[in-house]
Amino acid sequence: MRALRFDNRFVRELPADPEPDNHVRPVHGACYSRVMPTPVKAPHLLAWSREVAEILGLDEADVRSAEFARVFGGNGLLPGMEPYAACYGGHQFGNWAGQLGDGRAITLGESINARGERWELQLKGAGPTPYSRFADGRAVLRSSLREFLCSEAMHHLGVPTTRALSLVGTGETVVRDMLYDGNPRAEPGAVVCRVAPSFIRFGNFEIFASRGEEALLERLIDFTIARDFPELAAETDAAARRIRWFDEVCRRTAVLVAHWMRVGFVHGVMNTDNMSILGLTIDYGPYGWVDDFDPEWTPNTTDAGGRRYRFGNQPYIAHWNLWQLANAIYPVVREVEPLERALAAYAEVHDASYRDMMRAKLGLAEWRVGQEGDDGLLERLHRLLAAGEVDMSLFFRRLAEVDPAAPALEPLAEAFYDPARRATADAELLGWLREHGARVLAEGQPAAARRAAMNRVNPLYVPRNYLAQQAIDAAEAGDTAELETLLEVLRRPYDEQPGRERFAARRPDWARDRPGCSMLSCSS
Fold it and tell me: Which pTM value belongs to this model?
């Protein structure tokens, strides 16, 4: 395997935990702890992303080598790798949880590719760290496959995200209680290699603020700006530079969540320790994809009671999380008004981004603001989709096939889950289609160009929960062909792919209440 070149600024420029032993403990005055991955019995490659390998300068021969499985399964290091686990805290379900940290993620190093781009390589499921608390630091194939698959699918959908290089089986089993119902079982283990320019999250700053370690907080902020936001380096005033940085974090987060709402993605556990400072989707755990449109739906069993992280609440939770970040950095900014302006700008950027995305999804050239305009049109559509139990992805995709001059429901027939609810919603939905058709005709766009534009933003293929579960079932039985096929389909989510229609079908009845297809837990 050709050598990767490493330049590990995080460990070189920030303070390390002085305790060398790998045992669970509070870590103070440090941004990370040095820790080695724990070797596994029989590392073997299950899947890989050719696009991410290319970014890193690796070819197929590199990835299929025994050395690759050894290194990215946690059984060895390449020259230049300096593994560590990061220290951070976070608000979980709205409550301060104290120290959290990388409990089962170990960063191998920061690789610099031929274009000079910096990419952190991080193993998830590679063994315990000082932040593992009561866990074993391992991950099961089920959750690892889901993270690998969705990371790459989100990229091809155009959603800001961390990436995934590889999925490596360990040859060992891991005991997990999938639904936290007292029925643990042994499952095959796996390690996913996550890739991103940075894995720093809101919680990295919150932990130092909570402890009054302002010097370290200041140091981490300035490091993050210098390494990950070099476009801000020209600002010589430190306070102004930090405020501009926070403003940019708010902007990126706003755009990110608008994208989630565009494609029907539900993160499931938007704790502040799961929020990327770069505005990337990070930490794919109990996530889910909206099948029948439901703003109240959450895929996370832990969230089933309060539904804090439900689909429709995600923009507000992101705003709340940014408030916590603002509180954390205030001690080294010491100005309230600029932080409040940035938080207000979050709402403005999110609303503008979301409206623009929905305008494109609806095939409109312009957006008329207000309840008497397209805001009201969209709200009525959402109400009708929820009432009629209509598949979100299929509705928007097939909307392009509805003739605006003579609207009919036939092109949308496959999007309905319940014939009885469809019968109830038909008349109102047809009325909405006529109103929408009138809007489209009034703009005078060429029909073919409008349909093509709609199909570029309304995906036909998304990593639906049941599709991922089918790939998991096959992989657990030793067959990765379904995963490979699904990954290939998701590389072109906006293109019709003859012969692969089954991957665009709505959720089957058997998957409505099946674990892994409807509700998931944080168990991994």
Answer: 0.96
